[in-house]
Amino acid sequence: MDKKSSKINFLDKVKLFVAMLRDHSNQDFYIDDGTLGSIIACLAYLVLPTDLVPDFIPVAGFTDDAAAFMLG
């Protein structure tokens, strides 16, 4: 898989998680507690600057964020 394709998949997954949370909060979509916790943890890991590899490090900073989403 090339870099551009994986970047698009990563961004699509972020958008999907946000849409799922929005629909869940509007009670249009049910998410069980375990899955809800995983989605929130993945999104929190993305926005928190204190993670395994700090985001201010060019290129490498977001690789661990992407890996968290691929696992999530």
Automatic annotation (TrEMBL):
<keyword id="KW-0472">Membrane</keyword>
<feature type="domain" description="DUF1232">
    <location>
        <begin position="37"/>
        <end position="71"/>
    </location>
</feature>
<keyword id="KW-0812">Transmembrane</keyword>
<dbReference type="GO" id="GO:0012505">
    <property type="term" value="C:endomembrane system"/>
</dbReference>
<protein>
    <recommendedName>
        <fullName>DUF1232 domain-containing protein</fullName>
    </recommendedName>
</protein>
<dbReference type="InterPro" id="IPR010652">
    <property type="entry name" value="DUF1232"/>
</dbReference>
<keyword id="KW-1133">Transmembrane helix</keyword>
<dbReference type="Pfam" id="PF06803">
    <property type="entry name" value="DUF1232"/>
</dbReference>
